[in-house]
C-alpha cells in the first residue's frame, strides 16, 4: 500500500497478489477473532482513498497506513489476540481489558511500564474480590494485611482454599506480582517484558477464578 501510494510499484503490477494476500489475512484474522483494520481489499480502492485530497504527500500516506497496521502488528506480537473471558468481578475485568488495551498500542518504555502498573492493579483487585479476613488468616503470625497487599491476601486465600496443593500456585502469584512490579519501575521496559507480564497476570486471574468457582459451567455471578 505504501509503495503504490509513494510512486513505487504500479497498482496493475501488484494488485492481484495484494488481493490474494488480503483474502488470506482476512480469513486468518476472522478465525482468530481479531478485528481487521484494513478496509481496502483492492489497491484501486486504496488509490481512490488517497486521491480524496486529505493525504496529499507521500509522508501523510505512509503515516496513514502505519497507523492502521502497526497496532495490529503489536497485538499479534504480544500474543494477546484471543478474547479474555470475563471473570464476573467487574473491577478485575476492567483492569484486564485496560491492560490489554495499553499493550495493544504500547510503543515506548513509559507505555510498557503502564502495562505493569495496570497488571499490578488487576492483581490487587483480584485479591480484594476473593480475600475474606475472617476466613483467610495471614500466613505470618501477627501480621495485619492491608487492603492493597495483594501478595499476602492471595497467598492466604490460596492456603485455605487449596490447602496442601497451594504451594505451587502461591509461587505463581508471587512471580506474577514480582514481574508486574519490575515492569512498572523498569526504565528499559520492552514489549517482550510487557507481554510476559500481561500473560502472567491473566494466568493468575484465571487460576483464582477456577479456584473460586467463577469458571464453573453455568456460573454467571457478577
Word description of this protein:
The protein has 222 residues and is mostly helical. The chain has two domains: 2-78, no CATH class; 90-212, Up-down Bundle (Four Helix Bundle (Hemerythrin (Met), subunit A)), CATH 1.20.120. Helices cover 66% and strands 0% of the residues. It is built from nine helices and no strands. It has helices spanning 2-5, 11-31, 43-50, 58-78, 90-105, 109-130, 150-162, 166-185, 191-212. Helix 5 packs antiparallel against helix 9 and helix 6 packs across helix 7. It is elongated, with a radius of gyration of 23 Å. The protein starts with a helix and ends in a 10-residue tail after the last helix. The model has no long low-confidence stretch (mean pLDDT 89).
| Main sheet summary | none
Strand content: under 5%
User: What is the H/E order?
Assistant: HHHHHHHHH
Unreliable segments of 5+ consecutive residues: none
Write the layout of secondary structure elements.
Elements: H1 2-5, H2 11-31, H3 43-50, H4 58-78, H5 90-105, H6 109-130, H7 150-162, H8 166-185, H9 191-212
Write a concise synopsis of the structure shown.
With 222 residues, this protein is mainly α.
Task: Name a few traits of the molecule.
222 residues, mainly alpha, elongated, 0% strand, 2 domains, Four Helix Bundle (Hemerythrin (Met), subunit A), single chain
Amino acid at each position: 500500500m505504501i509503495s503504490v501510494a509513494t510512486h513505487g510499484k504500479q497498482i496493475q503490477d501488484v494488485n492481484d497478489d495484494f488481493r490474494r494476500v488480503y483474502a488470506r489475512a482476512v480469513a486468518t484474522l476472522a478465525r482468530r477473532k481479531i478485528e481487521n483494520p484494513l478496509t481496502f481489499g483492492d489497491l484501486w480502492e486504496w488509490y481512490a482513498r488517497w486521491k480524496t485530497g486529505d493525504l496529499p504527500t507521500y509522508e501523510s500516506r505512509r503515516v496513514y497506513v502505519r497507523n492502521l497496521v502497526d497496532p495490529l502488528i503489536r497485538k499479534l506480537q504480544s500474543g494477546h489476540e484471543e478474547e479474555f473471558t470475563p471473570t464476573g468481578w467487574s473491577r478485575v475485568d476492567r483492569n484486564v481489558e485496560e491492560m490489554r488495551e495499553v499493550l495493544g498500542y504500547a510503543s515506548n518504555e513509559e507505555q510498557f511500564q503502564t502495562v505493569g502498573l495496570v497488571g499490578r492493579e488487576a492483581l490487587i483487585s483480584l485479591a480484594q474480590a476473593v480475600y475474606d479476613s475472617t476466613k483467610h488468616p495471614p500466613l505470618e503470625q501477627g501480621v495485619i494485611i492491608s487492603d492493597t497487599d495483594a501478595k499476602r491476601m492471595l497467598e492466604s486465600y490460596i492456603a485455605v482454599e487449596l490447602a496442601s496443593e497451594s504451594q505451587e500456585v502461591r509461587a505463581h502469584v508471587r512471580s506474577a506480582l514480582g514481574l508486574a512490579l519490575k515492569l512498572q519501575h523498569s526504565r528499559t521496559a520492552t514489549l517482550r517484558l510487557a507481554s510476559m507480564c500481561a500473560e502472567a497476570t491473566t494466568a493468575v486471574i484465571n487460576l483464582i477464578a477456577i479456584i473460586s468457582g467463577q469458571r464453573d459451567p453455568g456460573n454467571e455471578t457478577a
